[in-house]
Amino acid sequence: MSLVHINIFLAFTVSLVGLLMYRSHLMSSLLCLEGMMLSLFVMATMVVLNTHFTLASMMPIILLVFAACEAALGLSLLVMVSNTYGVDHVQNLNLLQC
Amino acid sequence: MNMFSSLMLASLSVLTLPIMSSILNTHKNSTYPHHVKNIISYAFITSLIPTMMFIHSGQETIISNWHWMTIQTLKLSLSFKLDYFSMIFVPVALFVTWSIMEFSLWYMHSDPYITRFFKYLLTFLITMMILVTANNLFQLFIGWEGVGIMSFLLIGWWYGRTDANTAALQAILYNRIGDIGFIMAMAWFLFNTNTWDLQQIFMLDPNLTNLPLLGLLLAATGKSAQFGLHPWLPSAMEGPTPVSALLHSSTMVVAGVFLLIRFHPLMENNKTIQSLTLCLGAITTLFTAICALTQNDIKKIIAFSTSSQLGLMIVTIGINQPYLAFLHICTHAFFKAMLFMCSGSIIHSLNDEQDIRKMGGLFNAMPFTTTSLIIGSLALTGMPFLTGFYSKDLIIETANTSYTNAWALLMTLIATSLTAVYSTRIIFFALLGQPRFLPLTTINENNPFLINSIKRLLIGSIFAGFFISNNIYPTTIPEMTMPIYMKLTALTVTILGFTLALELSLITHNLKPEHPTNMFKFSNLLGYYPTIMHRLPPLANLSMSQKSASLLLDSIWLENILPKSISQFQMKTSILISTQKGQIKLYFLSFLITLTLSMLLFNLHE
Q1: In a domain, A97, yes or no
Q2: In chain A, positions 24-63, which contact chain B (CB-CB < 8 Å)?
Q3: Transmembrane region positions (chain A) (predicted)?
Q4: pTM
Q5: Is any Cβ of chain A less than 8 angstroms from the Cβ of B584?
Q6: Do the domain assignments include residue A30?
Q7: Fewest beta carbons less than 10 Å away: which of A15, A94, B105, B348?
Q8: Are the beta carbons of A93 and B584 separated by less than 8 Å?
Q9: CATH number at residue A81
Q10: B261-276 in b/e burial notation, b at 16+ Cβ within 10 A?
Q11: Residue B582 at interface with chain A, using a CB cutoff of 8 Å
């Protein structure tokens, strides 16, 4: 694997670890989710452009669109939690209330 | 070449002069009402000349003035049909209107908007003339709607009173239902005979005329207050007495009958529609006569009397005698208008008292009004050789000797005797006995306007029947020979009604009043028809539409079926089956460790 690929892959891994290990704010995992999406986008664009795989050049853009939707969903969940507790500390989500 | 058409057009167009003077602001004068009255008298005299020419020579004219537009193959123009019906009706209507205008100079004397009142009455007269002389259905419809609008404006004259507003709205609504029938007939004629001109329709003589004639019958039901669309006529008594005298006794309510008379060439070929008309008229005349028996407002009794006589006219059309119905229209105008004017005189003299239980003893206090009231009632019931006799007796004779529905005939005869009953009731309560009004009275009938107008109609009520019957040319041949009991039927039932009513009134005059019986309540509350029909159908309509549109479509189909049901279901099941406690960091960490371990194993294993 070339250096560039390793670089982007490392960025993805760092974001993944940041998504799964965080202290208290839900917001930080959402941010890491965005970072994962960004690195995936760059990786996909690079590979497609380098191999001149024109038919697949739609894929990164569609990935972007779906990532936007998922970010909106994540933010709405954040807002729901914040409405109830005022802060988005994860340790508040210990009661499954409806 | 004679002056027939010019004089008739002149007589009709002078009526529009006072309306146009409102441009010059002369209508703010205090002499404007006198001008209007004078112009109507001049129009009457001018219209007598063409009528006499018509009677002498039988010359009918159609004046087609101005071509308005042509829509593909339909030609609309301004055309006047001056035939038997319009030539005789126009002088009668102008005469009665002249007397009513003079009467309202006395009655509405203290009203601050008297000039506007006269302008409204004049506009009504013009639209009525348009209706009567129309040669095509479009012009007739213009007149038809015009009289409806003026009726609305005049009934609601004292618009501060909620009852008056309700009554005016009621008149418009019931008339509108009739207009649906009119427009249906117009559409049918347009489709099937390609015209709205009466001549072409009669010439083409279409075969299946059930639908348009039903439409015209519905229109007549609405405008002439037949059973089913009748409650607006008694409610219309909220308007001033001149309005009741002009609109709701002589002119507007006969517009429906006039329409059916105009279409008699089509109706004489359609037996079904004739039977329908006959039964409708018979129901109306009996029902309204029953309702009139127990009313206490003098104007309402006379209004129901009008409705009953209109039913009689419809019965006459139903036995295929349009010319007799027309004769009854003309004679009825005289005595009915006079009855209303007498009641107006009584009401004003007793300081706006309309309840007959609070009148009495006017026989000596108001001799002139008494005379004309009694003569009007006698003419109404068909006393021999007064005005009503010439039309009403002929109608009853013809109905008796024709091949017709026996039930309808029986209803009509009963209604004729009831006419005598309620007329006797009015006379007994208003005129005879001891006075039941307050001692401080303002009884005054010395005004020349009042006396002259009633006097003119009085002479008309006595002589007009004889005069008109002897001067018109013969149309349908009346039945000449019949058994003596049939000849005397009308007279017998009338005398029976008189005697019965008089006996009952005298016997029960001093008895203790009891609780009303069921029949009394039926008659007094107008057969419960307004009570039921004004509340139940609107409630049913509105609640059904609310339930179907708002509840069914919006709430259930758009909201509840998918979105709300899904969210409800999800919440319930997730509460039911989840065992999580929300330890998110633990879950994420375990995920990460699993991932790392699997990566390591996968990579380091050969």
Answers
A1: no
A2: 29
A3: 6-22, 29-49, 61-81
A4: 0.79
A5: yes
A6: yes
A7: A94
A8: yes
A9: 1.10.287.3510
A10: bbbbebbeebeebbeb
A11: yes
